[in-house]
Amino acid sequence: MKTVAVLMGGWSAEREVSLSSGAECAAALRAEGYDVRTVDVTRDVDALAKALTPRPDAVFNALHGRGGEDGTVQGVLEFLRIPYTHSGVLASAVAMDKPIAKAVFAAAGLPVPDGVVVKREDLTKGDPVPRPFVVKPANEGSSVGVRIVRINDNSWAEEAQSWDHGRALVERFVPGREITVAVMGDRALGALEIRAHGTFYDYTAKYTRGGSDHLMPAPIHPRAYEQALDISLRAHRALGCRGVSRADLRYDDTRGEPGRMVLLELNTQPGMTPTSLVPDIARHAGIEFPALVRWMVENAACDF
After folding, report:
1. Phi, psi at residue 116, to the nearest 5°?
2. I want to staple 110 with a disulfide (CB 3.0 to 4.6 A). Which of 17, 29, 105, 127 is the partner?
3. 209 falls in which pLDDT band (50, 70, 90)?
4. In the chain, what is the straight-line distance between the N-terminal and C-terminal CA atoms, in Å?
5. pTM (global) more than 0.85
6. pLDDT for 136-194, tens place per residue?
């Protein structure tokens, strides 16, 4: 019987999301016949190494955010020579740093929004780009710290004083619809439209039941649908990703269809919670959740 250690928890702002993802994946893997043990990861590397002794056949990395998604824990697993799910050290580190990932996407000829990178203190000195714009931390996930600043938004000047996420990526707001695409290996599984019940697809909309509607397949023009798949697969390849990834895009159809598709970012370790997007997309492609996590484990690898 193959043994799998599921890494979950961590110390990032996405700890609770990771615990949920890890629990779902561990349960599915046990149902598939794997010998599973869960590991709540802390900053104690010695404790992690002990938890991975005896060495499992594979690690399912269900961590999200800093420490678990940015190449850090991937480096530990490379050192221990334990195959793990999702992308390797370099792809994980680049994808987690939004400005660097965006530069790679632009160099690969992928459509990205206009924007600038500024220091936190610069946000208080005036609008970095014309409104409306989006402010997001350079290296967070799950929409943590994301703020849409609209034309007549009088509260932003005060909020900018307390925005505390280090470097900020400030991008021109792209109107239209929220599209996400799951990539599995060398195949784009499908495109889904997200319709948040709030102002946008924020942390609450992502992880609260009923916080958003998932329309699968995305009800957009066929040409735009194929473009979304193509952009997402090319982004996956541009970063050197492996396993499963999820690309987030905006579809500007305000002037009619087919509209303009813009790549926002790529998530190398997408959520696997009951409200997450990748399982929905995979299911529509004929891949149930247990089969999805089994494929991820069977394709676990090391970079070196």
Report:
1. -140, 160
2. 105
3. low
4. 25
5. yes
6. 988 876 577 899 999 988 888 888 888 878 788 999 999 999 999 999 999 999 999 99
Q: Give the chain's mean pLDDT.
A: 92
SS (H, E, C) the chain: CCEEEEEEECCCCCHHHHHHHHHHHHHHHHHCCCEEEEEEECCCHHHHHHHCCCCCCEEEECCCCCCCCCCHHHHHHHHHCCCECCCCHHHHHHHHCHHHHHHHHHHCCCCCCCEEEECHHHHHHCCCCCCCEEEEECCCCCCCCCEEECCCCCCHHHHHHHCCCCCEEEEECCCCEEEEEEEECCEEEEEEEEEECCCCCCHHHHHCCCCEEEECCCCCCHHHHHHHHHHHHHHHHHHCCCCEEEEEEEEECCCCCCCEEEEEEEECCCCCCCCCHHHHHHHHCCCCHHHHHHHHHHCCECCC
Q: What is the dihedral of CA 296, 235, 145, 176, to 10 degrees?
A: -120
Domains located in the chain, CATH noted: 3-85 (3.40.50.20), 95-112+175-287 (3.30.470.20), 115-172 (3.30.1490.20)
Question: What does the alpha-carbon distance between residue 252 and residue 258 come to, in Å, rounded to a whole number?
Answer: 9
Show which residues are catalytic.
14, 142, 207, 246, 248, 265, 267, 271
The upper half-sphere exposure of residue 150, i.e. CA atoms within 13 Å in the direction of its Cβ, equals: 5
Residues 22, 3: Cα–Cα separation, whole Å: 15
CA distance 304 to 284: 34
Burial of 44 (C-beta count, 10 Å sphere; 0-12/13-18/19+) = exposed
